[in-house]
Amino acid sequence: MPQNGPVDGVRGLLRTWIRPGAVTAAQGLLIALLALATHVALFVLSLVSLLLIPVFGVGFALFPVVTALVRLCVGLHRRLARWGGTEMATPYLPAPAGAQFGTWRRFRWVVSDPATWRDLSWLLPGAVTGAVCLAAFVLPVYGLEGLLGVPLVLHLTVGFGYGPFWPIDNLVEALLCFPLGALFLVGGVAAGRWLVWVHLAFARFFLPPTRTAELALRVRQLTVTRAETVDAQAAELRRIERDLHDGAQARIVALSMSIGLAEQLVGDDPEAVRRLLAEARETSGQALAELRGLVRGIHPPVLAERGLAGAVRALALAVPLPVAVTVDLPGRPAAPVESAAYFAVAEGLANVSKHSGASRAWVELGHSDGRLTIVVGDDGRGGADAAAGGGLAGMGRRLAAFDGTMVVTSPAGGPTVIAMELPCELSSPRISPSSGTG
């Protein structure tokens, strides 16, 4: 509608220029303050601690402490880079067991990690580029000062200077502060983006993991994932064995005993035989139901028959509150991945039913860039924590076996959103329209 034109223009200006400019200015200010306050001091402390190594071994205890401070500082820079949209993984090799401060093992671990020396070599160039980032904040603020008429007001009261006019001698020079302020603001935002980009370019060169560190971190992750997967599989096998022993096996034994007793009484007491056969039929039905339930716990038939989309819709129908299901899958994942995704959604919806106190929930399935994405959310009380163990921790372990990830966002008061990703390719292309199940 025509009356929304100016409003849409303001929104577009806010989204494409003002908001990114404000973020860059704030990012530049924080980077500059962090660099000016810490880099040179940490570099000097690192050199001193290294020089003190021959002096009664003082450096052996001091250097790991200084390195921990350097890593804290560099970690803050990585967070600031992430705030600006640049992701940098933590590059440090895993600490060995018993690597406590003041021990030889701690010193050897720190010294042998290439990331330690990359951090130290970045401190001085990072101090220079970080300090220059202060201009990303100062120039736009100086431009706003001119645009808001501060030089004009101060000229009329106490005298002031702005830009090339210092001091301002007349009203014309004071009024020229408005276009000068606009120039400083636009130029400051543009220059600030470039200065922050240069700083982050230095950071991307020094701070990400080396190839060796990436491999070491990957090996560690795979080792932990394999151990958790083996433990989970062993627990699952014990559960299946226990269910068979306590359920179907016991009923089949009772069934065998009933049939044997019926064979003995078949000629003497036909009425007792009929009762025994009726009990045997009931027992066989119960055993069959338990076996079917056990099979559903291993690989649900609905998953094999209807695929992940249909199986998740069936799960949603069984939840005692409205669940909206949105599916955008142009094919089917591999069977193991599909099973892991199904049970993760099942556990998520079970938690919604048991613990959330929600009035509604939703499930979203999608696939892009070679990753299956799953979101389970509810409008409940929140407070869910995967670190506390239980079902959420089991979901994380199940996904980790396939290099999957899980992020739980659950502030107090809700909502709770569990976002999961599984790397996989789809097969059997087909159309899976979005739908809602309530």
From TrEMBL:
Its EC number is 2.7.13.3. The keyword NAD does not apply. The chain crosses the membrane at residues 21-45, 51-74, 122-142, 148-168, 175-197. Residues 236-303 form the Signal transduction histidine kinase subgroup 3 dimerisation and phosphoacceptor domain. Residues 32-207 form the Putative sensor domain. The keyword Transmembrane helix applies. Keywords: ATP-binding, Kinase, Membrane, Nucleotide-binding, Phosphoprotein, Transferase, Transmembrane, Transmembrane helix, Two-component regulatory system. PANTHER family: NITRATE/NITRITE SENSOR PROTEIN NARX-RELATED (PTHR24421), NITRATE_NITRITE SENSOR PROTEIN NARQ (PTHR24421:SF10). This is histidine kinase.
